[in-house]
Amino acid sequence: METATTLPAVNGASSKVPLAERRGNDSVVLRLPVEGMTCGGCASKLERALGAEPGVRAAAVNLAIGRADLTYDPAAADTAAIVARVRATGFAVPTQAHVLDVSGMHCAGCAGRVEKALRATPGVVAADVNLALERADVHLLPESVEAAQLVTAIEAIGFRAVVRSGDTAALLAQEAERAAVERAEGRRDLLELALALALTLPLIAHMVLPLLGVAVAVPPLWQALLATPVQLWIGRRFYRGAWRAIRNRSGNMDLLVALGTSVAYAYSLTVLLWGMLAPTQSPNLAADHGGAHLYFEASAAIITLVTLGKWLEGRAKRGTTAAIRELMRLRPESATIERDGQEQTVAIAAVAAGDVVVVRPGQRLPVDGIVLTGESEVDEALITGESQPVPRRSGDRVTGGAVNGSGLLRIEATAVGADSTLARIIRLVENAQSGKAPVQRLVDRVSAVFVPVVVAIAGFTFAGWLIADGTVEQAVTAAVAVLVIACPCALGLATPAALVAGTGAAARHGILIRDIDALERAHRVDLVLFDKTGTLTMGHPEVVGITMLAGEQNATLQLVAAVQAGSEHPLARAIVAHAEDQGLVWRAATDVRSRPGLGIVGTAEGHTVVIGTPALLQAEGIDATAAAAVVSRAEGRARTTVLVALDGALTAAIELTDPLRMEAAAAVAQLQERGIQVEMLSGDAEPVARQVAKSLGITQVSAAMRPDDKVAAVRRARSAGRVVAMVGDGVNDAPALAAADVGLAIGSGIDVALEAAGITLMRPDPRLVGAALDVSRATWRKIRQNLFWAFVYNVVGLPVAALGLLNPALAGAAMALSSVSVVSNALLLRRWRPRLQSSPVVAEHPLSASTL
């Protein structure tokens, strides 16, 4: 069967050119868009590289339209390998992402089959399936695969899938529908579990009570009648799953359960029927009369216990994903807006940026926005983790999902739908939870061969007992025990369950983990580098003095504000705010050029304006010695001095201060108590920086640093073998955050740059740095515990079962308890709380912001 999707027209070419086309079973034609080729040499280089890729039969690269045409054998290559080769050669391949909710997976084998099916779809570049979230993240070539084809590929191997909507309202509807389906399935499973328990308990009593001296006998025929509905009706899900696995030439937990219980049931039924039909010919097989034992209780108990375990596991898994559901519930379904002077209640999807939204006391804010009128306290606890409501008044920014206090607010919407802070947070948390830790890749490789290996061990066990002159009964019970004690579910859930619970717990307390690799590295951090401004200090400097060395103050300040009006630097904003407070107005400046770490240069009202450090003035050929005394006096007061020169002459020195955050000293002490070294990086002059560091208990400080100097400091520490965490505001120090092993961006609500670092702290409390490292340690501790127990179950249980030392029913109980214990252990992370120390008293004195 051939499948094809079309490529959009390129340079007037036909839009009917198939991008991915399967021709028969042994050939796929792929037309791959490639970016970054600039000459014929690039095209030739890529063509040679693709021609050398195993499985590629032919490759031709067209530079004019930026495309590589290939024919490859799908048994020897796939789209992912080809795209990897293109990228390794130095070029880019554009991709787009789809997220699918997948239901029906029971173990790592199931997840592996879904991944394999998706990756085998022409045009799919990458596919990762998270068993705990029941979610598939797929990256594919643009326009190459319809979402419906991904669903079809999953359904073809026996699972159900729904493409997740990118629209927040539609996503909420999907989640509600999914929850309703889960509740219905949960009720059905509970009824079936109750039936299984009712039928199995008499069989268990028949096995256990005689050991306690209580005479209980269930006739063999009644044992068969009780066990048959459990085996064939309650156990039908295992047969279906096993058949799907066999059909797709793979293995899963269902196959082990179905095979193990079927052997025990069939053996017992054979013994029973043989004893009933020909008792004189086979006296030793007369059940319960000195002959072979019946194992109906084992087959029924295994199915019942595994069913119970999956039901408990499902409840526990829903607990681990509670954080996402809590965040989704923060978004109200409707909003009250003002249109044409009238208030209207509309669906949340109908609210647009620029609309005026009315929020009454006690209501949730439906959108991000700016307060136009009104004053209230807003509870942002579920967004930032801040337990106390924060005051908001005219001009303040507010976040959708927060709860309004006692005042009425009129808000101008600035971000709605998928662009809102809440939607971005949900995406970040979901992406983090669906990520795969490095250790999970090893577990996936083990899981891929786990079931076939277990089946082989069971076969060798059966044969070994017979060769060693054991009875058929001994061989059967040992083989069945081997099959049902194996725990592929525990292996598959060990890592993702802990990651989902850990990232969810962190999100509840204002710690957003965007990158699973960053989370993994965070638990090994031994050096934390703090950028000072906005991290250890409030980040809101104020002008506290202006010394005029020439000219008139207001006229100079007016020119300075004109040049700095477009700057996002804290000092620039402080100077502009001071000029506004003085009632000054100005025309837009021209030819404005920023000098990172030094200052800014521009032209205003025909004057050349230079604003910044003495080093900047020196670089511009301006003599700044007249300001030396002013700068020295300001440094003695821990103030920052910004120098101003007009038309090549030194004109003014502006002094600013930025107080420390109340929690800064406690944050530093908390990290040092954990044995983590703390250093501070600052753009300040050294005397100012050292005074700030001393007040916080930091002994290592680097001053007068530009952004590239901070990057160099991070790289030096890493090259020395340190595991480095860099903490900053995510704006001025983004390169340093990216260079560190772990970047932590600190901010406040919608002011924070969510994509700036691997870990984002949603409120400006530096104590959350230690909390982020703590939750990383707690998560990885759970992962190690889970993997340890998952492997112990199998490493210890399989040999014990093979030696015939384990009753099959007990083996089934161990299998059921393994996955339940792993998920329940991960669920304990929901109880995690950050340990935030109180701040010690710090001597009061003015503290500075970093220089421009």
Explain the overall architecture.
The protein is α+β, with helices and mostly antiparallel strands and 852 residues long. Helix content is 46%, strand content 19%. The protein contains 26 helices and 31 strands. Helix 8 runs antiparallel to helix 14. It is elongated, with a radius of gyration of 34 Å. The N terminus and C terminus are likely disordered.
How would the blueprint of this fold be written?
Elements: E1 4-6, E2 18-22, E3 28-33, H1 40-51, E4 56-62, E5 67-72, H2 79-88, E6 96-103, H3 108-119, E7 124-130, E8 135-140, H4 147-155, E9 160-163, H5 168-208, H6 220-234, H7 236-247, H8 253-277, H9 296-320, H10 322-328, E10 334-339, E11 342-347, E12 356-359, E13 368-373, E14 376-379, H11 381-384, E15 390-392, E16 397-398, E17 403-404, E18 409-415, H12 421-434, H13 438-467, H14 472-485, H15 488-508, E19 511-513, H16 516-522, E20 527-531, E21 542-548, H17 553-564, H18 570-581, E22 590-595, E23 599-604, E24 607-612, H19 614-619, H20 628-636, E25 640-646, E26 649-657, H21 664-673, E27 677-681, H22 686-696, E28 700-702, H23 707-719, E29 724-728, H24 734-739, E30 742-746, E31 759-761, H25 767-802, H26 808-827
Parallel strand pairs: 20-27, 20-29, 27-28, 29-30, 30-31
Antiparallel strand pairs: 1-2, 2-3, 3-5, 4-5, 6-8, 6-9, 7-8, 10-11, 10-12, 12-18, 13-16, 13-18, 14-15, 14-17, 19-31, 21-26, 22-23, 23-24, 24-25, 25-26
